[in-house]
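Record 1 of the preview.
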Amino acid sequence: MTATLNHVELPNGVRIPYAEQGDRRGTPVVFLHGYPDSRHAFDTLLPFLPPSVRAIVPTQRGFGDASRPETGYSMDDFAADVAAFLDAIDISSAILVGHSMGSIIAQRVAVLYPDRVRGLLLVGTASTFQSNAVVNELADAISSMSDPIDPDFVREFQAGMFTRPAPPTYFETLIRENLKVPHRVWKAAIDGIMAFDNRNDLPRINAPTVIAWGDQDELCPQSEQEVLLAAIPDSRLVVYQGLGHAPNWDEPQAIVGNLIELIARIES
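->
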């Protein structure tokens, strides 16, 4: 299948580019990328999806070729964009697949707009990053930077997300997309991530949820997965041995398998 490219302008003026593939009458699944990626973060996963999945992959505000407003980079701002985006493409509710930052945005959509979420697949996720030493160190490093962002920093940052050799062309695409992002967005978005704390709201998530975690993930420890699993009423944990923060990059076919199982569970 070949994805088609389009864009919408939300009522708040934010322009959101997105890719779409699959049967328009199929199960709608919206894929939310991580920090500081774009829709291209799911390029290696999309080919494994069956035509029955209507896959929709937006680039979120500030990143890639989306609009870069001066403000609006809290996780709740991103969640509001997702709800508005669903309105703009005339979808009442969808399954959300989120990686890293995208996974915590998906959580907030499920809390704030529960009727819009059929199910959640959270990859490389956590309930909060407020006391996370690794993310604090990253935030400090970004605070000290300025434009243009150092390409060597971006390469080192993204290389750390893979536990298996990254396809060279795909890796270069990720780097190119990351380098489009100005420093102010890098900083505003990481500040939004650091402020995120969903612990008290997790029991409000009523959508069937799959938590996909690589046991070598240095950003999201096992303790966080246990918090999520205990607090989200209809949730289950899938552990990937030997993988890190991005099993969707290292094992995209396996993540698609998790998604297909979630769809079958929801539609049964």
